[in-house]
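Repro:
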Amino acid sequence: MITADGTRESVHAFAQAVRDALADLPADEVDELTDGLEADLTERADEVGGTDAFGDPTLYADELRASAGLPPRSETPRRSIARELRAAIVASSAALANRLRANPLASWLLDIAVALRPLWWAARGWAVWQLVTLVVWHTSYGLIPVYESVSANAGQWLILLALVIVSVQWGRGRWLPRRWAPALTVLANVGTVLVILPVAAFAVNDSHASYVYASSAESQPAATGLYSSGQQVFNIYAYGADGQPLDNVRLYDQDGHPLYTVPDPSSASAFTVSDNGNAYDTTRSPLADGLLGWAVYPLANSGGSTPPAPYAHVQPLSGSASATPTPTPTPRATPTPTPTPSGAHG
């Protein structure tokens, strides 16, 4: 019994030749006459031992015409360059397959290639997706779309999946006009062979660059200390509602954690900081033990003195008790009694 892989190319070439002999008919009539033709030919090839017993494909086509009650083929059919090119491609492919089958090693490799055709169909769709992203979006999403935003990745996954499905269906002989299927398949495969290596190299390079960037971002140590608008804060000066500086102020965040301006308050008892080009050694407050001494502001320098505040005082807060002076009451005059003259009493 001849295997399907061993006769597939010959059966396909014979069926295509039959369709070419019916090319003078409308496309829908050709499809109706040849529907299921390859399956029937494969079954007959198993019975008779190959496709040589089929005879002339033109005579086979004439039998199909006669059985359907259609007129004979025109003696002077219209010449079609596209049809001739399609027939030449099919005939060349069949001849090449037959020559390869004559060599045991080549036949074995061809059987493996036939078995791996679904993978090639998927790779063809992937290559088309790479070209679409480069032409439309002027970028690459890597080997697979995982290096962009979630919305962009979802859209690219849908496009990739759609193109792979179309490529697989074409490879299976679906979703493509039968009269053009062999020629378009050959052209698509040749184009894929030409572009798949360049786009794969570009995608691998883009994926590597994205991985290196992500890895470097993850390995970058987190900023330590206290920052304001991107600038590191080395010391804090607090002022009261009256605009006067306050000493020994303790600051905490919304979770009750002390605010530290030093990078690692547990590693040392003093730090050298540089603020606006002025370097000085700062130390924790002696009023608090351990780490809490770094959360009492303003921090003193190693000599025990506090660096001067940026302002001697600031504008008092409007509406505060210190901003509205308490009026001084006006003293009331005490009357002096008038002395009574002596001898005035009777």
